[in-house]
Amino acid sequence: MKIVPGLxxxxxxxTACSGPGPGTPPAPTVTVTAPTTAPVPPSAEPAALSWMDGxxxxxxxxxxxxxxxxxxAKPQPGxxxxxxxxxxxxxxxxxxxxxxxxxxxxxxxxxxxxLAEKVRKAFATKYxxxxxxxxxxxxxxxxxxxxxxxxxxxAVKALSQAQQDVDGAYDPVAPLTESPExxxxxxxxxGCKA
Length: 194
Description:
Blueprint: H1 3-16, H2 46-70, H3 80-106, H4 114-143, H5 152-165, H6 180-188
Helix pairs in contact: 2-3, 2-6, 3-4, 3-5, 4-5
């Protein structure tokens, strides 16, 4: 039993004495310095950046304006005539907002890649359909005699359909994921940061 502590003490003694001998230089210290500059991200082509900024701004502008106009709680109409006015105002709001998007999409510069043009046309078609549906329904409703309850059903259906027309057209970037050039532009375009 005394052998185990004795061997342990001898092992410790040998370990403590096994450093570099006198006159032996210490092992050199190796220092590794990491580069201090961060990698520069690739920059988007100016034409693609400008196009994406305008495209995103048009779509996000519609969503922002729609949300702002929906915020104030409006009192419930007290009569059929008041309901007609409120419905007419809502249809007018949709027609104006979607019309603004159509105008902005039409004003975009030439698309930088074919996919961008295809997506622009698809979005423009959806917003044009919603604008025309809402504007036509508003016109018919406004020509109806005040208090005409029957005039409200088609207007309510048109309102619902106009909202459905733009469903799926709120995210301007998702349909462009196949294009690395457009995705890079979207990552750098201020209008796409919503």
